[in-house]
Design goal:
This protein is α/β, with parallel strands linked by helices. Helices cover 39% and strands 16% of the residues. It holds the Pfam family Glycos_transf_1.
Amino acid sequence: MVYYAGSVPRVFVDLLSYTGTKGGMETYTRELYRALGQLPGEWDYIGYVSREGAKRDLAWFPGEIVRSGISGENRFVWAWGELTRVARAARRAGADLVHAPATLGPRRTQMPTVVTMHDMLYWSHPELMSTPLYTAPVKWMERQAAGNAARIITISPTSQREISKYLRVPAERIDVIPLAGAAPSGVDRNLAGSEGPLILAMGNRRPHKNWAAIIRAVALLRPEDRPHIVITGGRGEDPLAPLVESLGVADSVDLRGWVDDDEVTRLYSIATALAIPSFAEGFSLPTLESMGAGLPALLSDIEVHRYVGGEAARYFDPEDDRSLASLLLAVATNPDLVADMTAAGHVRAAEFTWARTALETREVFERALVSDPR
């Protein structure tokens, strides 16, 4: 029997990291709670939002919003809020359960807590982290969150093994629930190739993303064979710009900052394929989004990409620029290959749904309430 104090379980949701700048983790939080709100059954959800998050459209959240007044962009204020303020606010709200959906969470709570840990990159690939000064504090906070958690949700078998390895959490306390991917609305794949062969790459410039591989790979092709490369997601002065200049591929590579929704829709419509050359990931949400939109995916050959892309994607060695170059050339010149990948991608993406993610997440909430009725 599920334990909770009242007639309806009250879930206090830690949204301090939700500021509009966190990419995939925010997509997960938003789509998960939109889907949780559509499931049958009575559950109360209380969102504890950052100062920045309170200014955004929160219509997707299926419950009450509590403004914390805490900045999710000021790392020190946010860390203090995660460790201490979330627990106090949950107690005041009479919560039966806390859910921290963005890897970190409170150090100690009076009620059971479920933490969604997306990856262990600070542990498995510390040399690829762009903020080395934060590595030790983040690892410490992850230990605290994991130690307090009644259950941990993660998004791939890779992350499950690494959470067990680095945080010494028994595997039976970790639930693997994959994400889903929703294609941007308004994508028109009838426009694919209308501006010539175009490879789309989207994401921040953190070193583990390995964007330089795409630039080096396209430089290996003859100028007349090169697809156009668009890499979005940069902020400020782009660290990839010197490489583009030194390899003489400025005519073929377009480095973008963050693009708005309309431009994302346009790029998804006209692109030939999506490329992701990462050395490591916790999951690969852009893969599902692209395949769902009808955009073939070229992925680095790492375990988590195989887990998401299956037989629908094509894979390359992230350390071998020539293997990526050959795939860039293939999708730019072989429409039959693109058509086959598009059809397979639709089928693969349909296996992952937010309704499934939400249902399995609520089942974890129920297990946490049963196993840890504080």
